[in-house]
Design goal:
Strand content: 5-15%
Structural class: alpha+beta
Mean pLDDT: 85
Oligomer: single chain
Number of helices: 10
Shape: elongated
Strand order of the largest sheet: 3-8-4-5-6-7
Largest sheet: 6 strands, antiparallel
Low-confidence stretches: 1-19, 162-168, 310-315
Distance between the termini: 37 Å
């Protein structure tokens, strides 16, 4: 399941509470608290961490694989597991009042399904949410899939986070992803793009391609634009953006982080915006358009980093 963020709307000040160590938008806090107590195997912190990983609390999130809503249910799973949480007579995957309770109950069902599997029960439950209970039972625990292993590690770490630490708002990540997503289909233009949007590029790329006369974005122009929408100023090139950001360990990745490619920090040549579960939005190359791609689209994945608020670092 791929969490692709769009516009979440609602309260612009996600808050943490004494009971929730994860940062949860205020409009979803009560839903997460209640659904997070659906069974002993699930907690509000765990459910909050899962929803952050899946969609960044965006009820309009959709993925190239077909996952939908704030909890990223596949349609076939929703048909079996969806609930009418608000009693309006509809089971609506796009309605957080239905999807959040459904995700809590689905976790409980998965916990029962893999209860006899050896190993950590919480990890097995989370792995089943990501890869399916059949895979967990087949491998006798968390499957040997890198995506699933990172998924379990990320959510477990967030769920165990001590309350009161420094937090960042999910609203900024939502804004970044929404801004980039709105530009899907825009042409690639070498040197194109700035904080105001698409622009005519320059000459010439290392392969000799020109952006002159092409209104669009190159990879770093897209990230400059998307982050500007969230009030964060990035340097212009991919290498400069990496230097101006804080590195993130693979298990701590969040939607909105930047994914960089190159053999060294100095030779970074490409950047994309992480949208969850192994996918990025990026302007890939001359002749292409802004689109989703898997993180392993290039063999020289260098690292992931998180820009800080209002960064103006010059390189």
């Amino acid at each position: 399941m791929v969490g692709a963020l769009a516009q979440a709307g609602g309260d612009n000040s996600p808050v943490g509470t004494a009971a929730l160590s994860a940062t949860v938008p205020a409009e979803y806090r009560d839903l997460v608290q209640e659904a997070g107590n659906s069974c002993p195997e699930v907690s509000p912190n765990l459910l909050a961490a899962l929803l952050q990983q899946e969609s960044g609390f965006n009820p309009k999130a959709s993925s190239p694989a077909g996952a939908q809503g704030i909890a990223q249910f596949m349609p076939s799973t929703w048909a079996d597991e969806g609930v009418d949480g608000n009693g309006d007579g509809k089971k609506d995957v796009w309605d957080p009042e239905d999807a959040i309770p459904a995700s809590g109950e689905y976790l409980c069902d998965l916990a029962d399904e893999v209860a006899d599997v050896p190993g950590d029960k919480r990890n097995n439950m989370l792995a089943a949410y990501n890869a399916g209970g059949t895979a967990v039972k087949k491998y006798g625990g968390v499957p040997p899939y890198k995506e699933t292993q990172n998924y379990v590690q990320t959510i477990s770490a967030a769920a165990d986070k001590t309350p009161g630490g420094k937090t960042t708002t999910t609203n900024q990540a939502v804004t970044v992803i929404n801004a980039a997503e709105e530009k899907i289909g825009t042409p690639y233009s070498w040197g194109g793009g700035n904080a105001n949007g698409a622009s005519s590029g320059t000459c010439c790329s290392p392969s000799g391609k020109t952006g002159v006369g092409i209104v669009g974005f190159d990879c770093s122009g897209l990230t400059v634009y998307a982050y500007a929408k969230a009030g964060i100023t990035l340097p212009r090139t991919a290498a400069q953006q990496y230097a101006a950001s804080e590195p993130v360990e693979p298990g701590q990745m969040r939607p909105g982080d930047l994914v960089f490619y190159g053999n060294t920090a100095a030779s970074i040549h490409h950047v994309g915006i992480y949208v969850g579960n192994g996918y990025i939005i990026n302007a890939p190359r001359p002749g292409a358009k802004v689109r989703y791609d898997p993180m392993d689209m290039m063999s020289d994945l260098y690292g992931v980093a998180r820009p800080t608020q209002n960064t103006n670092k010059e390189i």
